[in-house]
Amino acid sequence: MTLDQISSARLFHLGGSSGAPVLLIHGFGSSRLSWVGTALGLAGYRVYAVDLPAHGDAGNDVGEGTHEAMACAVIAAIRELPRPFAVVGHSLGATVSLHLAEMLPQDISHVAVIAPGGWGRSIDHSFLKAFPELRQPEEAESLLHRLVSRKSLIRPQMVSHVLHMLEQPGRRDALRRLAAGILASPPPPLPKVENLCVIWGAEDRISPPDLGRLAAFGDQAAVLEGVGHLPHVEAQTAVNRLLKGFLPH
What we know:
- Helix 2 packs across helix 3 (92-103) and helix 5 crosses helix 6.
- This protein has a seven-stranded mixed beta sheet with strand order 1-3-2-4-5-6-7, with helices on both faces.
- By secondary structure, it is an alpha/beta fold.
- The protein has helices spanning 36-41, 67-77, 92-103, 125-130, 137-144, 156-166, 171-184, 211-215, 231-234, 236-246; strands spanning 10-15, 21-25, 46-51, 85-90, 108-114, 196-201, 221-224.
- The protein has a single domain (10-244), classed as Alpha/Beta hydrolase fold, catalytic domain (Rossmann fold).
- It starts with 9 loop residues before the first strand and ends with a helix.
- Keywords: Hydrolase.
- GO terms for molecular function: hydrolase activity.
- This is Alpha/beta fold hydrolase.
């Protein structure tokens, strides 16, 4: 996928008519809807979010399925986004955010990454491979439990939403290609922007935090105890507070 192509990613305005623009990028198997609580917590900002290719209401063209392909898809989808903007990404979306910061150095002022894929000690390959194959509520619930420290957060509505998304024509094949591309991609680059924030859940089982790497970021990094792979969901208040203290005013 190149920058001059029509993107299968889609941009949405989640709220706010004034203030600094902030772009939210979700993780693998999720959508812009995962950011509803974050958007509500970012009063005073113009909040936007994308649906990445093969997610939400986006198209299924994932190109080569690499992090760079996802970043190119986002760039093509955000042509009308006000500049400069801050970007907040989770997991795959965090990795895409780091590539965006490298590709759009003049456009991005702040980068906040939540559990960025490739920066942890490992990645749960089996989760990525199993997700596109989910068909029954019981197996979907069991897999999604890996995302959180508190299993009660995986509610029936979430399970139903995931299975409905997977039944969209071409969606499973697109996610299989994307999963393969993610697993073949190298770790994302360190951003050249000075304004970086890293947030991680101490109990993350999908991509366990590398505490040695995080220590190198000093007070730019926060590890939240008792939280799994979805800090912006499991510890919404704490994450929103960290983001509001970090993002431009």
